[in-house]
Design goal:
Length: about 290
């Protein structure tokens, strides 16, 4: 309201200076011009505020129906600031701080439901979140409506149960060094004669081996689902060894074969919440309305 009143005053002063105070028609047009500028500038902010309120209401409804604490970690491109520029998101330290605070303030006996949709992110941030979930006394369920790759899969390991839609995906958690798979760097360094390998590659191979060993041990420790120690080590080995490309899609069936406790009973409320995180870019996918039940 303060900004609106200032725009109104500026419009009046401008018209008075140009045309005098006896020109109400010009004053009205000029004021309308300033109001339109204000509305166009504020529209993304107003839409964002409305979306946040709607999301909060939906999260509260899910919490009430399930008797749990809901934590949504959903990364899409979203329109930001005044002019709606998209900003790509991933798991970072800010996410970890917020999630850890939510877990810390949840009563020990209350279940936690994590709604996870992410391409991955910083390993240290994902590990912090996964460790906090692993330590929570109450039951922990991770819902994956579409995908939780890399660091998202690492977070899911700290849950008692993973709920996925039929075609949702997990992904490998093999470390990446400077954007390259650690396992591939190690392979290149080991297959060449030592004299043909430059120092930087040798250093990266050493870092890569350490990263794989560390993440394998941490993934084994993070597993909250009931699993024999040998099975847990085998699972961690498969996820961290680089046997797949980093974007390899682990389906529901394959996740079960790996030993993860996965079901496909996805609540409709979770899918409805995902619809409240739209992409700001125009989509080329359209479809007709759902057939009404008879």
């Amino acid at each position: 309201m303060f900004l609106f009143s200032r725009l109104w005053l500026l419009a009046q002063l401008d018209c008075a200076a140009r045309f005098g105070t006896n020109r109400p028609d010009v004053l009205t047009l000029a004021t309308l011009f300033w109001i339109l500028i204000f509305v166009f500038a504020m529209q993304p902010l107003i839409a964002s505020r409305w979306l946040r309120m709607t999301r909060a209401s939906k999260i509260a409804a899910i919490q009430k129906s399930r008797g749990s604490r809901v934590i949504a970690v959903i990364h899409r491109q979203e329109s930001m600031r005044f002019f709606g520029f998209p900003l790509a998101r991933y798991i970072d330290m800010d996410d970890a701080e917020k999630v850890l605070n939510a877990i810390r303030t949840t009563p020990v006996e209350q279940p936690i439901d994590v709604i996870l949709h992410t391409p991955g992110g910083l390993a240290i941030a994902a590990l912090q979140i996964a460790r906090a979930l692993r330590s929570h006394p109450g039951r922990v369920t991770v819902f994956i409506p579409h995908f939780a790759m890399s660091g998202g899969t690492l977070v899911a390991l700290g849950a008692d149960e993973i709920v996925m839609t039929e075609h949702a995906m997990l992904g490998p958690i093999d470390p990446q060094i400077n954007g390259l798979p650690a396992a591939s760097i190690i392979k290149v360094a080991s297959e060449k004669p030592l004299s043909d390998v430059d120092d930087q590659t040798l250093i990266l191979a050493d870092l890569g081996q350490k990263a794989i060993d560390q993440l394998k041990r941490q993934a084994t420790e993070l597993l909250r689902m009931p699993m024999a120690p040998e099975a847990a080590r085998n699972l961690a080995e498969k996820l961290t060894s680089g046997r797949w490309t980093h974007d390899y899609p682990i389906t529901v069936g394959e996740a079960r074969e790996l030993g993860l406790h996965v079901n496909t009973q996805m609540p409709q409320d979770v899918l409805d919440l995902m619809a409240l995180f739209p992409q700001p870019v125009r989509t080329t996918v359209e479809f007709g309305p759902r057939r009404s039940p008879r």
